[in-house]
Amino acid sequence: MSQPRTCPVVAFDHNSPEHSADPVASYARLRAEAPVAWTDAHGGFWVLSDYDAVFEAARDDATFSSGRSSYGGEGLANTIPKAPVRLHIPVELDLPEHRSYRKILNPVTSPAAVAELQPMIERWTTWFIDQVIEAGSCDFASVIGVPAVVTLDWLGLDVDDWRRYSRALHSVLADSPGSPAHTHAVEVDIPWMEEQITAAITARRARPSDDLISYLLAQDVDGAPITDDAAYSMVELLISGGVGTTASLVSQTLVHLSRHPGQRRQLVEEPELLTRAVEEFLRVFSPTQALARTVTRDTEFRGCPMKKGDRALLAWSSANRDPAQFEDPDDVVLTRWPNRHTAFGMGIHRCAGAHVGRAIARQLIGEIIRRMPDYVVDLDGLQTYAHQGVNAGFQRIPATFTPGPRLGPP
Ligand code: HEM
C-alpha cells in the first residue's frame, strides 16, 4: 500500500524491462539521486543502493530480518516479490535459530573441505569442456553447467538432471509471476524437484552414504536430530545458492574477457592473478544483484521513517559500484586489492558457499581460457536472462574457438 513518505519516492522496479536493459546504469542513477528511497512497485518497498546503507542494514539483522512472515505476501523472504518455494534454511532464519543451522554448514564449506572437493571440480570441468572442445564452437551456457553438476554430485543427487534443477530455481526466482516460464516452474518443475529431494532424503535415512545429504541427516540441532523438513530446506537452499550464482559469475566473466582480450591474455600468462581477478569479477558482475529483508520495528534509517513490516531491498550490485567505496568502480582491475565487495552478502548470512563458488569459478574460467585461449563470443547472439533483478547473467553465449583435444575419456 502506498503511503506518504518524507524520503524520496522513486519509480524503481528491479524486475522491470527498463531496469533489466541496463541494471548498472539504473542503479547508478538511483545511487546518485536517492540511495535510500521508497518505491511503490510490488506493493511498496525501500531500496538501499549505496555501500554504507547496504552495509548498515545487512549488519543490523535485528532490525532487518531475514525471517519468513506474511509481510509483502507469502513465500521466500529474501526476494521481492516473494518466490513460492519452501522455507530455505539458514538464509530465512534470524538469530538465534540461524546459528544452530549455520554451524552445520561451516565444516563442509570451509577452505579445507573445499580443497577435498577440488578433484571433483576438476573432473567435471574437464568433462564439460571435452564435450565441446573438438567442435570449435559452442554455447558457453552449456559449459557452465559445472556448478550445477558439482552441487548435485556433492549432495548425492542425480547429476543428469542439472538443467532441470537450474531452470526450475532460476525461473521461480527471476521470471515474472504469471509468465509461462514461471507458471511451468511452479506447477511442474518445482514439484518435481521436491519429489527428487524428498526421495533422496528417504533413501539416505534408510541407507546413509558418503554424500552431503547423508552428512546433513546425521546432524543434531540444539541437541535433537535434524528433521527431514529442515534437511530438505537446507538441501534446496544449497542447490538454489550453488547453481545459478556461480554460473552467472562465469557467464559474465567469459563475455567480459571476450571483449577484453588483453586481460584474457594476461590471465593466461599469469594464472596466479586469477584469485584476485575472481574477486573483481564478483564485485563488478554481482551474480546475486539484490536481496530483501523485513523491517522488525518502527525506526529511522538514514533519515527515512521505516515502519515495522516494511520490506527493504539491499542492492549488493549497486553497493559494489559505489564510487565512495571503490576507486573507478566501473573499471575491471584484475589486481584490485583490498576488495571489500558485497557480492556474497554481509553479516550473519554472508554466503556459506563462498569458497565453493570461488573454487568452481577459478577452475572453470582458468580452464576455458587455457584450453580455448582465442575464443570469441558472438556478441550479437548473446541473450541475457529476461529479468536481471535477482540473478544477472546470460542464458545464451555462442562462441567460436580453435578446436583442441579432449583430455578425459570419451
Ligand atoms: C558466485 C557464487 C555465489 C554468490 C554470488 C552467492 C551469493 C550469496 C549471497 C549474496 C548470500 C547472502 C544472502 C542474504 O544475505 O540474504 C548468500 C548466502 C548463501 N549462499 Fe551463496 N553465493 C554463491 C555461491 C554459493 C554456493 C556455491 C553455495 C553452496 C553450494 C552457496 C550457498 C549459500 C548459503 C547456504 C547461503 C545462506 C547463508 C546463511 O544464511 O547463513 N552460495 N550467497
Description:
- This protein is α+β, with helices and mostly antiparallel strands and 410 residues long.
- The chain has one domain: Cytochrome p450 (Orthogonal Bundle).
- It has 15 helices and 15 strands.
- The strands form five sheets. It has a six-stranded mixed β-sheet with strand order 1-2-3-11-8-4, covered by helices on one side. A three-stranded antiparallel β-sheet has the order 5-15-12. A two-stranded antiparallel sheet has the order 6-7.
- Helix 13 packs across helix 15.
- The longest helix has 32 residues, at 228-259.
- The model has no long low-confidence stretch (mean pLDDT 95).
- Protoporphyrin IX containing FE binds at residues 66, 78, 90-91, 102, 105, 151, 237-238, 241-242, 245-246, 249, 287-288, 291, 316, 343-345, 349, 351-353, 356-357.
Labels describing this entry:
410 residues; alpha+beta; six-stranded mixed sheet; three-stranded antiparallel sheet; 15 helices; 48% helix; binds protoporphyrin IX containing FE
Task: Describe how the helices and strands are arranged.
Layout: E1 9-10, H1 17-21, H2 23-33, E2 36-39, E3 45-48, H3 51-59, E4 64-65, H4 97-109, H5 111-133, E5 137-139, H6 140-143, H7 146-155, H8 162-174, H9 180-206, H10 212-217, E6 220-221, E7 224-225, H11 228-259, H12 261-269, H13 274-285, E8 291-295, E9 299-301, E10 304-306, E11 311-314, H14 316-319, H15 354-371, E12 376-377, E13 383-384, E14 394-396, E15 398-400
Parallel strand pairs: 1-2, 3-11
Antiparallel strand pairs: 2-3, 4-8, 5-15, 6-7, 8-11, 9-10, 12-15, 13-14
Helix pairs in contact: 5-7, 5-15, 7-11, 8-9, 8-11, 9-11, 11-15, 13-15
Bound molecules: protoporphyrin IX containing FE.
Protoporphyrin IX containing FE is lined by residues 66, 78, 90-91, 102, 105, 151, 237-238, 241-242, 245-246, 249, 287-288, 291, 316, 343-345, 349, 351-353, 356-357.
